[in-house]
Write a structure and sequence with these properties.
heterodimer, A: 631 residues, mainly alpha, Na+/H+ antiporter like fold, Rossmann fold, 6 strands, 72% helix, B: 198 residues, alpha/beta, 6-stranded parallel beta sheet, globular
């Protein structure tokens, strides 16, 4: 068994490692790469893996579960509120119209209305995995097509809840096989009780998410052990999935809900980046198993029927979407991306069909056919997108350039300023900026601090800013300015290095503690360095002068001039430092620097040249002239 | 060719329609330097050495500012106090600015008609500008009459565009040395020479 497992692991991983880069090389996207890999190693081509592919698919469906959790995390209720019109308008009409059309065709093809309706629901679903993956790869998420697609996918994700609740009511045939992956402890209950159980479970998730998970994560975060946090993130997803299975619901829905609930919590970005690799791997596995599960025998035997249904369903879906896009005034190119992008039947259909199969709404033969159609449409969909991308869009691009550029500009909800470190230094900056209407996204890794400030209405996220993925999630790629205000100079320097490498366009403004770390920052080529002691200690010095009887404005000007002098001296000395001998201890270097500074200060007294409003020189000159006259 | 330095002082530039329009039209030429004092010295800590060097590099200096309380904004006065040093700009040995040309380019809210004995401002612009004239004189500079954009509260976008075009003509003529000192003594406002040559 052990060697068997290792052998399988090698097969799956190498299939992915070989096929995905090749697919990407030919601009086909990773999804198609995984699908092809699956077909190749599947029982019908190379036969490396047998029919256990189906079981694997159930396991790999967990990737979809995780993806939905992550999608949920992306959906802050406030953002949801902003796009509510799109979700309800576009999403609802897509699901209802597609379902109705498919159902009509089904009834026309002499299916029972219940079966036709069930198929309609399943076919209305598009593939979140394929669409979001390719939209992200092409950077279309902010475009109107991306926004519309997201709205539709989101509505479908939500629609699955009532659909799963409605499906048991369609049962008209006696239940024969009562045990299934998706069937749990409530299978024996009456339909109405089942529906109630579903609703109760959903309510339960909301409560658990709000009152159990966040406090738990806070506790874990305080241990400052990253792997423990990852473990809890996995635990949340797995536990919710298990709970959902127990009540006979799709685990994906439960985790999606949990995600939405946690979207508002400070752990959003941390959870996202911890689960992202797992999601990616499992989704890859999922696509591979979809590819492997395509039953070429069944296909061969019913080739004409399956091909016909697949083409029909893609055409119906694309057409419905296109009309909706047209109504919503999408430009032609955006509408094509939207309509063709979402034209496949999605992974939710697998879930729905197995649920439908379990409840005998369709015969096993019909269910298998429908699953084949689903898999086939998912395989064709990336190909359609390539055709669209390579041949159709370029010819449209010329006419539509100006228009789509304008639309894309309008959407921009990320803040221009990203502030890392929310201690006393960062808080003051954020307060000042907020008082002047400049919104900053704040990143800090003290969960108590984050919690407090969130209550005060700051947009604060919990996360470790030395991680590229977290910076990315906080919007480092879109922001203009990054303020680094963490207490530790070492961490600040580390972030500077990471940001310079990964986000070269981001302007860095950084807090520094003393001369030594300022020199390090200067060596990194940073111009905007703010020594935290400088202004404050000079202000204190100015006040000392005032209390000793100096006129306030003169003392103030002396302070201004000293800061100017010191900033200039810092840069000169930074150059000298490179030529200085290497000190073994930092303390020795600090002392040597202080010596050099003090000597310089004595040589150039920064206030000595300030003759403004000083009439001494004038008086001397006049005396001199008077003396000459009198002589 | 003459080198022109525009010393601009406006504490709330972003709220000034007139100055915003004027600035937008300043030609970007190698021999016209625009120097925004409030942008450089929000702390009023004027860098003496930088300003002296800048003055030496130019032949024609323009004090461009709104006419607040019959004078310039405080930073412009601070600039005069700090930069025009005794022994450098005036007094014994103070000849650094000798024979350079200087004049004011001013925006006023009130119309020109209010600036005379009959109007509520009672005195003419030239009378109000005497301190500037005398400052120039003390520095042995040549003082030209002012360029005016008046009644700015009531100006339409069209009017502003017209004034901006005048300013462009003025800056071009100045930078090309297309003027005579004698003629400048005869006119009241520089706007008079800002007509498009046919």
């Amino acid at each position: 068994m052990g060697s068997g497992f290792l052998f399988q692991a090698v097969i799956y991983l190498s299939a992915a490692v070989i096929c995905v880069p090749i697919a990407k090389r030919f601009a086909m996207g990773s999804v198609l790469g995984y699908l092809i890999a699956g077909m190749l190693i599947g029982p019908f081509v190379l036969g490396f893996i047998g029919h256990e592919g189906k079981d694997l698919m159930h396991f790999a469906e967990f990737g979809v579960v995780m993806m939905l959790f992550l999608i949920g995390l992306e959906l802050e209720p406030s953002h949801l509120w902003k796009i509510r019109k799109q979700i309800i308008g576009v999403g609802l009409s897509q699901v209802l119209i597609t379902t109705a059309v498919v159902m009509a065709i089904g009834i026309a093809a002499s299916l029972l209305w219940q079966s036709a309706l069930a198929i309609g629901f399943a076919f209305a679903m598009s593939s979140t995995a394929i669409v979001l993956q390719s939209l992200k790869e092409k950077g279309l998420m902010k475009e109107p097509s991306g926004q519309f697609s997201f709205a539709v996918l989101l509505f479908q994700d939500i629609a699955v809840i009532p659909i799963l609740a409605i499906l048991p009511l369609l049962v008209f045939l006696p239940i024969t096989n009562s045990v299934d992956v998706h069937g749990g402890g409530i299978e024996g209950l009456s339909k109405w009780l089942q529906t109630t159980a579903v609703l109760a479970a959903v309510g339960g998730i909301v409560l658990i998410g709000k009152y159990a998970i966040v406090p738990l994560l806070r506790l874990i975060a305080n241990t400052h052990m990253r792997e423990l946090f990852t473990a809890s993130a996995l635990l949340i997803v797995v536990a919710i999935a298990l709970l959902m299975q127990q009540v006979g619901l799709s685990p994906a829905l439960g985790t999606f809900l949990a995600g939405v609930i946690l979207a508002n919590s400070e752990f959003k970005h941390e959870l996202e980046s911890d689960l992202e690799p797992f999601k990616g791997l499992l989704l890859g596995l999922f696509f591979i198993s979809v590819g492997a599960s395509i039953d070429f025998h069944l296909m061969y035997e019913n080739a004409a029927t399956i091909a016909l249904i697949t083409i029909a369903v893609i055409c119906v879906k694309a057409l419905v979407l296109f009309v909706i896009g047209k109504k919503a005034k999408l430009s032609l190119d955006q509408n094509l991306i939207f309509a063709i992008g979402l034209s496949q039947v999605g992974e939710f259909a697998f879930v729905l069909f197995s649920f439908i199969g379990t409840h005998n709404i369709l015969t096993p033969q019909q269910t298998d056919m429908m699953m084949a159609v689903t898999a086939l449409s998912m395989t064709i969909s990336p190909l359609l997108l390539i055709v669209l991308d390579k041949w159709i869009l370029p010819s449209l691009a010329k006419n539509n350039n100006a228009e789509s550029a304008k639309e894309a500009d309008a959407v921009d909800e990320k803040n221009a300023v990203l502030l890392v470190g929310f201690g006393h230094f960062g808080t003051t900056i954020a307060r000042f900026l907020r008082a002047n209407g400049v919104a900053a996204t704040v990143l800090d890794n003290s969960s108590e601090q984050v919690d407090l400030l969130r209550k005060m209405g700051f947009k604060v996220f919990y996360g470790d800013a030395t991680r590229v993925d977290i910076l990315e999630a906080a919007g480092a790629a879109e922001a203009k300015i990054l303020i680094i205000a963490i207490d530790s100079p070492e961490i600040n320097l580390e972030i500077v290095k990471i940001v310079k490498q990964h986000f070269p366009n981001l302007e860095i403004m950084v807090r520094s503690k003393n001369r030594m770390d300022t020199y390090d920052l200067l060596d990194e080529g940073i111009d905007n360095i703010y020594r935290e002691h400088l202004d404050t200690s000079i202000r204190l010095g100015v006040d000392v002068m005032k209390k000793l009887g100096y006129r306030t404005y003169s003392a103030f000007r002396a302070g201004q001039n000293f800061i100017k002098y010191d900033e200039a001296a810092l840069r000169t000395l930074s150059q000298n430092r490179k030529d200085m001998k290497v000190y073994i201890s930092a303390v020795r270097e600090q002392i040597a620097l202080q010596e050099e500074l003090l000597q310089n200060d004595r040589k150039i007294v920064p206030s000595a040249n300030d003759h403004a409003w000083d009439s001494k020189e004038m008086r001397e000159k006049i005396m001199e002239l008077d003396n000459q006259k009198s002589r | 060719m003459k080198k022109v330095l525009i010393l601009f002082a406006h504490p709330r530039m972003e709220k000034s329609r007139a100055n915003e329009t004027l600035l937008k039209h300043i030609p970007s030429a190698a021999n016209i330097t625009f120097h925004d004092l409030y942008e450089l010295y929000p702390d009023f800590n004027i860098d003496l050495e930088v300003e002296k060097k800048l003055l030496l590099e130019h032949d024609i200096i323009i004090w461009q500012h709104p006419f607040y309380w019959y004078s310039c904004p405080p930073l412009m006065k601070q600039w005069i106090d700090i930069v025009l040093e005794f022994g450098w700009a005036y007094g014994p040995g103070g000849t650094a600015l000798k024979d350079k040309i200087v004049f004011n380019a001013i925006t006023t809210g009130g119309a020109n008609a209010t600036y005379n004995t009959a109007g509520h401002n009672r005195y003419t612009i030239a009378e109000y500008l005497r301190p500037f004239e005398q400052t120039a004189h003390l520095c042995k500079m040549i003082y030209f009459p002012p360029f005016l954009v008046q009644g700015s509260h009531r100006l339409t976008d069209e009017d502003l565009k017209r004034f901006s075009e005048q300013y462009v003509i003025l800056l071009t003529k100045m930078s090309e040395g297309d003027f005579t000192e004698a003629h400048m003594k005869e006119i009241t406002f520089l706007n008079e020479i800002c007509v498009k040559s046919i």
